[in-house]
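Hello,

Our lab assistant flagged a job as stuck in the queue for most of the afternoon. It eventually completed. Since we weren't sure the result was trustworthy after the delay, we are filing this so someone can double-check. Below is the sequence as submitted and the structure that was eventually returned. Let us know if re-running is recommended.
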Amino acid sequence: TLLFDAAGQVSNPFLMRGLSFDYLTAFVPVTVFALLPNLLVVRSETPFRNVADLVAHLRANPGREAYASTGIGIVSHLAAVMFTARENLNVTHVPYRASSQSIPGLLAGETLFTFNTTPLAAPQVRDGKLRALAVTTPHRIPAFPEVPTMIEQGYDGFSINEWLGLFAPAGTPAAAVQRHADAAALGLADPMVRDRHALLGMEIVAGGPAAMADFLAEQRARVGRLIRDNNIRLEG
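-- returned structure --
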């Protein structure tokens, strides 16, 4: 039995007290499947053409605007926290219960902006309903080469992505873990699979167990620090 999981696996231990298991001891990494960049998006009818425009509006309207996320402690929330904390902005957080709800909420005018994964935001951007102001990767992405990064717009070190990965139960023999990683890499090497992921703005990784272990260690350090520094907790 294998576990297919996402970035919440890193953030949950910092958000939830009294977890009945420890991710670090319960699972071993197999491979990261893909990275999912976040786009900072607004409705197309707004006047904002870049991040500076949005910041100017938020500064002029402290406490009057809101941003959407796909849940407390989820990457879309953490990206917005990084942004608003960097600029010391007073903006209300509206966490939706499902990832599929935040974009409709934005389109309905319930919020002003959101950071959301490319698979969720891309269709509305391509249809002209949303405008992408920035992407959260260190470099521009092939799916939206015209969209500048947060780093390009003055936010040094601003890089945060959702990700998908494969885990095996603790105690799984190393040879078996490597076989699973090799099988995943073979499947992800298929040109049709890669093209489909690229269309959605996703970056295939498939680096194997050792690379995933290093990736998780770096993510835990960064995400844990972000959650602690901003006192983020799950409510209820």
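-- support follow-up --
The delay was a queue issue, not a problem with the job. The result is valid. The mean pLDDT is 94. The radius of gyration is 18 Å.
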